[in-house]
Structure formats: structure tokens, C-alpha cells
């Protein structure tokens, strides 16, 4: 027994270290929250690819345009490029518009109006909208490369301005997008219901009849959107130039003017 006691005394006791250092201070919720907020603000914002601020703001409208064949584009890396797969939507809607016009003409021929003038006006209106919708699809197919170059150049500008300390915020763009989308859904739903009630049409025929008008409206909104995006960036460049022009130009509120004064 004494032998075992001597052996136990001779062996050193191993020191057990804790797995983690003990917390010396209490957990501060406010400090942790402030650090999280600061890290979120300092996080780099993306200006390219599907995660960019502008694309994220208009993503629902972009999907609708793609379905109507007016946005045959896809992302390759961080750049938007023409997509051959999305061209199927463009060709599909060209065929659909032709079928709709055939059905509409058959319907107009079978309907006898009291005044022939009204029949001519209605037929002319539908025909013009048909040619406008077809022209937009054809123009989209042949000019998709040019528009993708404009989009990518626009994203490059946003990134460079952000590096210079002038980041863009697309909050207003997102609000405008949702306002436009919701208002158009309400308007076209009201038009659909009133047309069905007034002319005794089925839902399918009325929707197919409106499809050409909706496609034309989407193409107009597409043009307005691209023009407004470019206008916003020119306005931002103009504001940056005013803030950094020398006082001799006449802008007393510029940054350079305040530094000189």
C-alpha cells in the first residue's frame, strides 16, 4: 500500500485548462448591437450582378418583362448578357399575338354594329397596337446587345462613384417600382372586369384581347425606366460637379469654395 502512495505522490498532477477564457465582463446588448450595425454599414455594397442594388429594386418588373419577351437577358458572372434561351419568350409572344389578332378579327367580323364607323375605329386601334407590340419584340431581339452594354456601363458608373465616396441608394427606385406594379395590377383588373361586364365577353377572350395592350404598355415602361435610370445618374454627376467646382465658376456652396473661403 505504501508503494502505491509513493507512486501517486511522485506523479505530477495534470493541470486542466478551461476550454474558453472566463468572461470577465457582463454581456452588453447595446454594444453588441452597435457593432453589428457598424459592420452592416461598412459592408461593401454590390453594384454588379443579380445581387446589385438596382437589379434587386426592379427584380419583379424585370421578371414580368422577361415573360413578355421584352427582356431576353441573363447574368454571366457579374455582367448582364443577351440570352438565347430567353428569346423563346419573345418568339412565343410573337406567335401568341398573331393568334390573338386572328381571334379578334374573327370576333369583329361576326359582331354587327349599328354604326360601321365604330367597327373601323376598333379594328384600326387593335391593328396599330398589334404592330407596335410586334415592332417592340423585333427591336428587342435585334438590339438586346446594345441595351446590355448600356446596363453594364451604368453599373460600372455606380461602382466607381461609390469608390469615390458617392454611393447610390435605390430606395426610391424600389418604392416607385412597387407603386407602379400595384397600380397597374389594379388598373388592368378593373379594365378586365368592366370589359367582361360591358361586352359580355369571357375572361379568357378579354385577357387575350388585353394582352397586346399590356405588352405595349410594358415596352413603354421599359423605355421610361431606362431613360429615368440614366437621368438619375446624370443628375448625380451634375450634383457632384457642383459640389467640387472652383469658386470662380459661381457655385459658392461647393466644397472647394468653402475650402478656399
TrEMBL record:
Protein name, per record: Gustatory receptor
Domain of life: Eukaryota
Membrane-topology descriptor: Multi-pass membrane protein
InterPro entries tied to this protein: 7TM_chemorcpt
GO biological process: sensory perception of taste
Localization per Swiss-Prot or TrEMBL: Cell membrane
Species of origin: Eufriesea mexicana
Record keywords, A-Z: Cell membrane, Membrane, Transmembrane, Transmembrane helix
Lineage: Eukaryota, Metazoa, Ecdysozoa, Arthropoda, Hexapoda
Transmembrane regions listed in the UniProt entry: 54-73, 85-105, 175-191, 203-224
Keyword set includes Phosphoprotein: no
GO CC annotations on file: plasma membrane
Pfam family, one: 7tm_7
Amino acid at each position: 500500500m505504501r508503494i502505491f502512495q509513493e507512486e501517486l505522490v511522485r506523479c505530477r498532477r495534470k493541470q486542466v485548462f478551461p476550454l474558453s477564457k472566463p468572461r470577465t465582463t457582463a454581456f452588453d446588448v447595446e454594444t453588441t448591437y452597435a457593432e453589428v450595425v457598424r459592420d452592416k454599414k461598412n459592408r461593401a455594397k454590390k453594384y454588379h450582378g443579380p445581387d446589385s442594388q438596382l437589379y434587386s429594386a426592379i427584380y419583379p418588373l424585370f421578371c414580368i418583362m422577361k415573360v413578355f419577351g421584352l427582356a431576353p437577358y441573363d447574368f454571366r458572372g457579374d455582367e448582364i448578357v443577351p440570352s438565347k434561351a430567353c428569346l423563346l419568350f419573345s418568339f412565343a409572344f410573337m406567335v401568341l399575338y398573331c393568334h390573338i389578332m386572328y381571334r379578334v378579327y374573327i370576333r369583329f367580323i361576326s359582331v354587327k354594329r349599328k354604326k360601321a364607323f365604330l367597327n373601323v375605329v376598333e379594328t384600326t386601334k387593335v391593328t396599330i397596337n398589334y404592330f407596335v407590340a410586334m415592332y417592340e419584340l423585333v427591336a428587342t431581339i435585334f438590339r438586346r446587345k446594345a441595351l446590355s452594354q448600356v446596363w453594364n456601363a451604368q453599373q460600372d458608373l455606380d461602382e466607381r462613384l461609390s469608390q469615390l465616396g458617392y454611393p447610390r441608394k435605390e430606395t426610391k427606385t424600389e418604392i416607385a417600382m412597387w407603386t407602379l406594379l400595384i397600380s397597374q395590377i389594379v388598373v388592368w383588373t378593373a379594365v378586365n372586369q368592366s370589359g367582361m361586364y360591358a361586352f359580355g365577353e369571357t375572361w379568357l377572350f378579354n385577357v387575350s384581347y388585353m394582352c397586346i395592350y399590356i405588352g405595349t404598355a410594358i415596352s413603354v415602361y421599359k423605355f421610361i425606366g431606362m431613360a429615368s435610370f440614366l437621368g438619375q445618374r446624370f443628375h448625380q454627376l451634375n450634383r457632384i460637379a457642383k459640389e467640387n467646382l472652383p469658386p470662380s465658376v459661381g457655385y459658392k456652396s461647393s466644397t472647394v469654395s468653402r475650402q478656399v473661403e
